[in-house]
## 1
Amino acid sequence: MCFRPSGGRLRLERIAMGPMVIGMDIGGTFIKAALVNRRGHILARLKRPTEASLGRIQIIDHIFSTVRSLETNPLSRGRVSAVGIGVAGIIDFRQGVVSVSPNFPGWKNFPIQKMLSQRIGPPIFIENDANAAALGEKWMGAAKDAQDFCFITLGTGVGGGLVLGGEIWHGADGMAGEVGHMTIDPNGPRCGCGNRGCLEVYASANALQRMVLEARAAGRTSRFFRNLKPSEINGESIHRAAQKGDQISREVIARVGSA
Ligand SMILES: [Zn+2]
């Protein structure tokens, strides 16, 4: 665990005043959490492996012990007023239920808020991770002065959050801002969500890899990828190849950009 900032004790005392919250991201690989004061200063961070394969009871234990560590941090002194948790997938934020999560196949209609409330004192809020990140940008980041904006995360997939009138627009099922699953081509490749041709299958790290593998399967050779395992063909290696003039890499990056 690290404490930030590392200034003098007096400064720490001052920024640690008032109520605090814990923000947490439950990823497929890591649980990342932070103790944050009302001004948005991060006072402490914690990161631990999720160990997603262990099953949901063990992950609930991990979440609980992470919250506990931050609650008992000398800077928080029991003043944590709420815990906000972001999870990828379809989240029923009103009920605090994970309907479906790509990172946790066993979490269908999982009442995570209720399970955690039995062990954690402060109120708990569950939100789609990209929606939570959009709210973060609204509070302290690039969208501070905007009332209406769209937030997009580009990574393994494409996440999105839509903020209208300063608040997350959830839509009927909490997924109104999921721009990654807008249809770009109804006849396109199958997406993880079950539909075809979503933005995510054209404009993500997975998309880059798939398009290079397709080119290789179609007999197009490139000295950059000839001897690589599929797992070694990723955003980084494709970017490097493109910089060295590889035609396939340049084409797939252009397709991502145009999508
Ligand atoms: Zn999709």
## 2
Amino acid sequence: MTKRKLQRFAENSTFDHFFQPYYHELISGFRLRGKWNSDFFKNENPLVVELGCGKGEFTVGLGRKYPEKNFIGIDVKGARLWRGAKTTDDENLPNIAFIRRQVEHLEHLFAPGEVDEIWITFPVPQIKNTAVKKRLTSPQFLNRYRKVAKTSTIIHLKTDNTMFFDYTLEVIQEQNLPLLFMSYDIYENPDHQDVTSIQTHYENIFAAKGETIKYLKFILH
Ligand SMILES: C[S@@+](CC[C@H](N)C(=O)[O-])C[C@H]1O[C@@H](n2cnc3c(N)ncnc32)[C@H](O)[C@@H]1O
């Protein structure tokens, strides 16, 4: 591990809005599960979660724009999360937190009905057929989201990957979920400011390669 990564890991643990609960803490009952608003954000605002947030550009960007909502970015990679956590700390943004954990552990991090909205930004496409259930919009993951989401939660997906996008459209159709909007080139659609006003690290990489950016949103029930 590089010295810089070690420094970032050490600094993460000094941020009061950065959490990396051990698995045993999760299964014995994580102290903020069901209490993010009452015990951490100390308000009753809607809770928006970004899954696989990487460096957290999207969570930070939305958090700056919507101080009347709470935002939590989740990723497994501590060195990436450091970027978002550092900006949040530097700018003293009270409505943002980051959690270093697998999305698979969502139900240990949040109580039923605690999450109001979900963003999935540039997920790993998991292209092998044997990895289908690892896709963040697979039926298995949608069932995980159902355990923590409010009834009729909106899920947003932003991706460069056509296979992943089409796969998600199929799952939405198979499960008879209302599709609110979809575009194979969101930058052709000036009406979707929240989607186009913030670029993530991976978005910039894919856009530089000439990929169009796809976006859809649907209701999970
Ligand atoms: C392609 S990157 C995109 C990161 C960021 N959303 C962006 O657009 O720059 C995918 C991210 O998902 C994270 N990730 C993949 N599977 C995950 C899982 N099961 N739980 C938590 N994070 C995961 C990876 O660590 C990585 O940071």
